[in-house]
Hints:
The complex is a heterodimer.
Chain A: E1 4-6, E2 11-14, E3 19-25, E4 32-38, E5 45-50, E6 54-58, E7 61-66, E8 71-76, E9 85-92, E10 99-101, E11 105-110
Parallel strand pairs in A: 2-11
Antiparallel strand pairs in A: 1-3, 3-8, 4-5, 4-9, 6-7, 7-8, 9-10, 9-11
Chain B: E1 4-7, E2 10-13, E3 19-25, E4 31-38, E5 42-51, E6 54-57, E7 65-66, E8 76-78, E9 87-94, E10 104-105, E11 109-113
Parallel strand pairs in B: 2-11
Antiparallel strand pairs in B: 1-3, 3-8, 4-5, 4-9, 5-6, 7-8, 9-10, 9-11
Amino acid sequence: QKEVEQNSGPLSVPEGAIASLNCTYSDRGSQSFFWYRQYSGKSPELIMFIYSNGDKEDGRFTAQLNKASQYVSLLIRDSQPSDSATYLCAVSGAAGNKLTFGGGTRVLVKP
Amino acid sequence: EAQVTQNPRYLITVTGKKLTVTCSQNMNHEYMSWYRQDPGLGLRQIYYSMNVEVTDKGDVPEGYKVSRKEKRNFPLILESPSPNQTSLYFCASSPSAPGNQPQHFGDGTRLSIL
């Protein structure tokens, strides 16, 4: 079983709609959770991070964390074609010195 | 400009020929790390370093070596490369351990081992 799991997609959403991405993790001691966006051929770039249960909003992005259920999600509101990319979920373990990534979810926003 | 610089960006080489991929950061970050990225597998951590002379294995360290003699540099060494090490490699750094700090990534190095 992979430590951090994501649906590989592609997740196809029409422009202006909400894209919902999910990520589950196996280590109950995980402390920090990150969402990175990666365009094809480019390096990952941080979108958001979240530490506490609940929601965290930043512009069109909302991260949701539920530690009891061991999942973290990312909502992209008003999706734009420029949001078409692979979204990587990353989880920091209890010790905080390692970062484990999921396989990524490919998102396609269609005009 | 704050950045993580990897060299080379692309390399095609043959099995068994030792190679080094350099990584340098100009942000005085303590934590540095190497990842490899393969289709469908996301980023997998190879080695990481909490500070100078402090390195530790990640999830896929076999076939790789690292060193951290200076704070800014963290080279990745493949002593005897094999075709299964063909991959896209990323170096990353952060001010401290990644548990509470986002990673700054280099532009990547695409290695092909024939």
